[in-house]
Amino acid sequence: MGPFTLAVDVKSSSPVSSDTSKQKMQNLQLAPKKFFASVKAGDEKPFDFFRTLFEGVIAGGTAGVVVETVLYPIDTIKTRLQAAQGGGKIVLKGLYSGLAGNLAGVLPASAIFVGVYEPTKQKLLRTFPDNLSAVAHLTAGAIGGLAASLIRVPTEVVKQRMQIRQFASAPDAVRLIVSKEGFKGLYAGYGSFLLRDLPFDAIQFCIYEQLRIGYKLAAKRDLNDPENAVIGAFAGALTGALTTPLDVIKTRLMVQGSANRYNGIFDCVQTIVKEEGPRALLKGIGPRVLWIGIGGSIFFSVLERTKRFLAGRRPISHPESNSKQE
Predict the structure, then answer these.
(1) Cα–Cα dist 63/299, whole Å
(2) What secondary structure letter does DSSP report for 316?
(3) Where are the Solcar repeats (predicted)?
(4) Which portions of the chain are predicted below pLDDT 50?
(5) Helix (H, G, I), strand (E, B) or coil at 225
(6) Among residues 290, 285, 273, 275, which one has the least CA distance to residue 247?
(7) Do residues 92 and 77 make contact, with C-beta atoms less than 8 angstroms apart?
(8) 67 contacts: CB under 8 Å, gap ≥ 6
(9) What is the pLDDT of residue 259?
(10) What does the pLDDT read at residue 46?
(11) Nearest to 201, CA basis, from 109, 78, 284, 298
């Protein structure tokens, strides 16, 4: 069979093309303005849920472990600053206390978060209009955070109790918390954790994704690792600063143990403001912004690099075989 040719009658096609160009101009004038960066799902490859889930789990777990290991001492200082009442001194020894036990929780929690976030994001981007991509990112971040909270909260409780030296090891912490406070002791401050982490996850990933989409559209190319790192650092630092009061409340509720000094979130806020002043709600903001800013830089650069590595190992589909089948 010879090559396929397309014959066009220029005279007969000119009125049609003129009408088409007019129609396109009208559509552009009537098109609503977009207030967020947008990405068309139609331009992307077909959605593979299980592969997206698998790659998200691997990439999320890898990024989470790297960040937690590198930045754990800063997190320990932040926790001790927030837990200190009045003019208590901050101990700078044992800054890696509880790291091993924390990694045992961070690995599955980060894997679950990204494993849920990525397919949810892809599905929502295909469901929502292009100008609502920010809503898709916000929603996917909140859903991913909710799924990961089932592991994150017990991990956070044990980690913070060890950071302030209540327990010597993670197994001892779990055993003694359950024996004294019951199983619910491992979920102390769960409400305040969700109050902090759901908006944090939603806002951080939304800012990151929107900035990344906007930068790619402006640069007309894929981003490199340093660019992903800078965007991740900005998104993390900004979100960390905005959610510091929520983090202080969560820390106080989680480390109070069986003493029950605070009776819930609102009582915690009232007691802190009454006894220590409103500025106490910003305790640890410096280490928190530094920690999450650097963490965002490392997390998102490792995440994107791992995702690219996994994408490069996908089985290659041969277009020749598809054309033969057609």
Answers:
(1) 5
(2) P
(3) 51-123, 132-214, 227-309
(4) 1-18, 21, 24-25, 28-33, 35, 40-43, 319-326
(5) helix
(6) 285
(7) yes
(8) 295, 298, 299, 302
(9) 74
(10) 66
(11) 109
